DNA sequence: AACATAGGCAACCGCGTGCGA
DNA sequence: ATCGCACGCGGTTGCCTATGT
């Protein structure tokens, strides 16, 4: 692969853009579109390289850019997504329409990271320093397992992007095949969105691949971490269950209508972690998980669980690909996952962070009803129980967030 | 008022990847 | 299969402004 000669640097201007340059670029793009960035500068009469023009446009001049202070909701979204995706700013930006990846990155580095650090939270792992005191086993496993979730989400985002590209290429031919129940898909990976879709196509299917995926998470992560915890209340001897609501439950009426933009709006499947007493995995009717369930010493199984979980996960993706072949078109009657905004609003761990920022003059009541319903934990000291509960909400909201589709993501 | 330091942000740099020739 | 181009992305730099001494 030849490395691209970025641009002919001789005679090209660098540094801050002048209003005149902005005007030229803006005027040209408004009239002609950006087209080929490389050719744009000469056509627009700019002494800049195409790359510089593209950056200026995407990060500053684009009309759909929202500038100014980040809202509380946006901050929460960034924190939650960063916990799951890491420094994948473009992926994070797809969930924050009107914000650029550069802006998000800067905001993270200059504001949010510091706040996390201030609270004793590692901004990289999002792990509280007290983890070792609280539950050196469970919490660390949770973090480790979440990294697997992040890997999956990374794959999902990439698969989504690929799928969109392919769907665009095939859009015309697919139009002609809408009546057909099957079409060949060359997509090597599928997405959570399509997991839903494929399942909806065949509601009778009891071996949905997506359940394997989520069960993998469940058994590999949440189930295990909660089982080793000795929390109180909801976390008392719980079996954490990742339930998947095929149809929108009544509670969905309380959720705001974010997300779901790209695929459809008829149904609103929702993912949520449910901490409940008693077993739940077997309720899913998946025999292969019973072995884990019957284990009385999970630590002996921990490696096996993780290994099997990821194996199942991999199979799940593979099966997804197969299932996709029976799915309808991307642009057709797709169902979508939706952001459970209510869950986000309820999450507490991030509120701790935001609350603890005494220098921040914004109150938690600000930001479109982002209420702090966990005022008893707002001290930020993070007692063990509070931390567990906060963490549950925290990751709960993360998962809901990432399984949603950005409403008007530039990615799509 | 002058200087030093820190914070914030726009822009640049270099790498990875997709795609067409 | 290979090569070169174009673009996207994440990390980093450097300038400007605010704040402190």
From TrEMBL:
The question of whether DNA-binding is a record keyword is answered with yes
What's the domain of life for this entry?
A: Eukaryota
Q: Which Gene3D superfamilies match?
A: Homeodomain-like
Domain Myb-like spans what residues? 9-61, 62-112
Report the InterPro entries cross-referenced here: Homeodomain-like_sf, Myb_dom, Myb_TF_plants, SANT/Myb
Where, subcellularly, is it found?
Nucleus
Keywords assigned: Developmental protein, DNA-binding, Nucleus, Repeat, Transcription, Transcription regulation
Q: One GO molecular-function annotation for this sequence?
A: DNA binding
In this chain, the stretch annotated as Disordered covers 356-388
Q: Name one GO cellular component term.
A: nucleus
Q: What is this protein called?
A: Uncharacterized protein
- Which processes are annotated in GO (biological process)? cell morphogenesis; regulation of cutin biosynthetic process
Domain (HTH myb-type) ranges? 9-61, 62-116
Q: Pfam families per the record?
A: Myb_DNA-binding (PF00249)
Please name the source species. Answer: Lupinus angustifolius (Narrow-leaved blue lupine)
**Key word Repeat present in the record?**
yes
